[in-house]
Amino acid sequence: MQTLQHGVRGLGLLVTLNVDRFLFVGTIALTLALVSWVSLV
């Protein structure tokens, strides 16, 4: 049980440290989708 708690805490720290990267990739993907949609209209 203790190992599971440490693993979840470590995973939470990893997500906290890399949330800006996820936002960056999501923003790029959203922008590309929007540009392709606008070019079709």
Set down the secondary structure blueprint.
Elements: H1 2-40
What do these coordinates show?
The protein has one helix spanning 2-40. The protein has one domain. It is mainly α. The protein has one helix and no strands. The longest helix has 39 residues, at 2-40.
Short note summarizing the structure:
It contains 1 helix and no strands. It is mainly alpha-helical.
Query: Could you describe the largest sheet, including whether it forms a barrel?
Result: none
The percent of residues in helical segments reads over 70%
Shape: rod-shaped
Tally of domains: 1
Mean pLDDT: 86
Radius of gyration: 17 Å
Number of helices: 1
Which structural class matches the secondary elements? mainly alpha
Strand content: under 5%
Describe this protein with a few key phrases:
mainly alpha
